[in-house]
Amino acid sequence: MKNFRNQIAVVTGGGSGMGRDLCLQLAAEGCHISLSDISTDTAAETRDMATAIAPTGTRVTSHGCDVSDEASVSAWRDAVAAEHETDHVNLVFNNAGIGGGGAFVDGSRDDWERTFGVCWYGVYYCSRVFMPMLVASDEGHIVNTSSINGFWASIGPHRSHTAYSAAKFAVKGFTEALVTDLRLNAPHVKASVVMPGHIGTGIALNSTQVLGHEVSAYVTEMAAEFRNSAPTSSEQAATIILDGVRDDRWRILVGDDAHVIDSMVRDHPEEVYEQSFLQRLVEQNAMAGVVNRQRGNTSFGHEND
After folding, report:
1. Sign (positive or negative) of CA dihedral 156, 273, 302, 127
2. pLDDT at 284
């Protein structure tokens, strides 16, 4: 899919971060978009921003949707069909995600299941619900956002990171399996897994709010540090993702740090959960995001919903 003009895309987590920038870049190319977010207000903001830069005739709609609830996703699908007067979509970006539920042994079960529900079941439900519309297209592509935590279940040896990592491993494995499944059963539809490193987004505050935790001044400060110290902006990340779709790449690493960590995990598989591995990454200047997160008392992931 070299050209997104007049294609129809659905984007989860479109209210901010990478989701917002995906919508803006797609809209600028004349792609029709339906975006969703747990926050109807931020979703509407993205809709208005995208409409303002889109060519005349480009349709952009927004919806409140909890991707961890299949009924909510199904209602959004029905709205897409009605508002865009279509029986198909060409692009599905399963981008929504939150961080939390770090400890399995003694952490909050509610936080764990909420994080896993958004990060894994959000991808699963949206894939289930929108797959028939992708198959009904002449050309389709499903793009699932995993993380470097989809191949490295850690933010360092001194911090639990279980729910997010488990979900992102599931997203990665599911998408890789889809490559063959689609080739056999719907060869006009492609699949890509996106694995970002440290991206400058507001996932920390978004996650805190979705999990119902207090947004203290300290959390706000740490979230700002995480966003501002990122080596890759959400705009740059969106460009890398869309270029990967154009190039028909099934595996899209986002950020130099993601490439370094990917290589290091492959080279030192038995060492990846030891302090020595973290030191190797620090020496490669690939760990700014992890170091920043270990200073705080929140647990959040790499990319944004």
Report:
1. negative
2. 85
Does a structural domain hold residue 270?
A: yes
Q: List the domain range (segments joined by +) for residue 166.
A: 8-294
The CATH number of whichever domain residue 66 belongs to comes to 3.40.50.720
Cα 190 versus chain centre, distance: 17
Give domain status of residue 299, yes or no: no
Tokens of 65: 């949707």
121, 164, 218, 273: which is the annotated catalytic residue? 164
pLDDT at residue 228, as a whole number: 63
- Residue 144: which pLDDT band, with cuts at 50, 70 and 90? very high
Indicate if the pLDDT at residue 145 is higher than 60: yes
- Name the domain count of the chain: 1
Degrees to nearest 5, angle at CA 108 with 107 and 112: 95
Q: How far apart are CA 286 and CA 264, in angstroms?
A: 10
Q: Where are the beta strands (DSSP E) in 155-284?
A: 189-196, 199-200, 232-233, 251-254
Classify residue 56 by burial, with Cβ atoms within 10 Å: 0-12, 13-18, 19+: exposed
User: Is-catalytic flag, 164?
Assistant: yes
DSSP conformation class of 123:
H
Q: How far is CA 145 from CA 17, 51, 171, in A?
A: 13, 24, 7
Rounded to whole angstroms, the Cα distance separating 19 from 12 reads 7
Return all residues near 252 (Cβ < 8 A) that are at least 6 apart.
Answer: 143, 192, 193, 194, 195, 240, 241, 244
Residue/partner pairs of 211-218 with CB below 8 Å, 24 or more apart = 211/98, 211/100, 211/111, 211/114, 211/115, 218/296, 218/297
pLDDT, tens digit (0-9, with 9 covering 90-100), for 152-163 = 999 999 999 999
CA distance linking residue 120 with residue 203, whole number of Å:
16
